Amino acid sequence: MKSKRLTSVVLALILICSLVLTGCSRTTDVKDIQVTYVTSPLNVPSIVEKNHSIFAETMKEVGVETVTYSEITSGADQTQALASGDIQFLYAVGATSVILSAANDADIKIISMYSRSPAAFCLFSNDESINSPEDLRGKTIAGPQGTILHELLVAYLATADMTLEDVSFMNTTIPDAMAAMMGGSVDCALLAGAAAYNTQAGGAHLVTNGEGLVEASICCATTQKFYDEHKDIVDSFLKAQENVLTFLEEQEDTALAETAEELDLDVNAVKDMYAYYDFDMTIRDSDIAAMESTMRFMLDNDMIEKEVDINALVIR
Questions:
Q1: For 181-185, what is the mean pLDDT?
Q2: pLDDT of 2 strictly over 80
Q3: C-beta separation of 228 from 111 below 8 A
Q4: What are the backbone angles phi and psi of residue 5, rounded to the nearest 5°?
Q5: Kind plus residue range of the DSSP H or E element containing 207
Q6: Are 221 and 98 in contact, with CB atoms under 8 Å apart?
Q7: Pairing of strands 121-125, 109-116
């Protein structure tokens, strides 16, 4: 009897050990991961990551066989693709797009920061007499609605107790806003990244940038469902993101040269613009506060109909 009991105990222990070892060595059943690839305005980490297959190499450790890129630049299209399951990771999506998606009850979670670059978001004019919010009263301003640039304009006007009702705002793309200002059909243009750099280099008057007005928060996101079912892959994604940032630190010249080639820019221009960006992936308390401010801006401007709990939106 004792022998049978001992045998049963031994068999049970073998089974437990087998399960533990299987769990430790488990690889994912998800073999192909879809990640967004957005290069503008100056997404150096995305360009470096793809050039050196850092996601693919890192995710091999958890059984992912291929990483596929989707060049979706619209924030709304990005969050829709995430919600549908066509994309597993949004690598560089604006906080405004994430908040809008969450306000519409979509499953979306911020897992890290991508960048902050308030100085890269600017308001320009060909009229050098425009130097204050009051100078904008009655002026026509072009730029993309529902974006960081839109938020910048609202925040700048608010410093003089003004609103969008005090100006004429035209919803356009960044290239169209730049062309309209250069052509004289609008007084000011809201521009970012290379468009902003080139416009200022061409002699346009900088009215203001986002410093002290917006944080220009860009995030990395997935869904709660994917996180719960494949936390190993999410952890691998974050590890790969760390590896990308290590590459930027250790091989900055290579990273900037690759960025210049990808965006067809002069490398010296890229070096100048690179100084405007903070690519630290850590989600800071200041990031939470900035996104709460963005959420309030969206609520006040009827872009969303209900508040979004930013802390509940973040996994950290």
A1: 96
A2: no
A3: no
A4: -60, -40
A5: strand 205-209
A6: yes
A7: unpaired
Q: How far is CA 204 from CA 53, 198, 224, 303, in A?
A: 39, 9, 45, 31
Q: What mean pLDDT do residues 151-180 have?
A: 95
| Token pair of 139 as six digits | 């002026």
Whether the CA torsion 281, 287, 293, 296 is positive or negative: it is positive
For 161, residues 6+ apart whose C-beta sits below 8 A from its C-beta are none
Sequence letter at residue 181: M
Query: How would DSSP label each residue in 100-127?
Result: HHHHTT---EEEEEEEE-GGGEEEEES-
Q: Hey, what are 235's tokens? A: 């952890």
Residue 27 is predicted with a pLDDT of: 53
The H or E element spanning position 148 is helix 148-158
Residue 277: C-alpha distances to residues 109, 118, 218 (Å):
23, 8, 11
Asked whether residue 4 carries a pLDDT value surpassing 50, the answer given is no
pTM of the model: 0.84
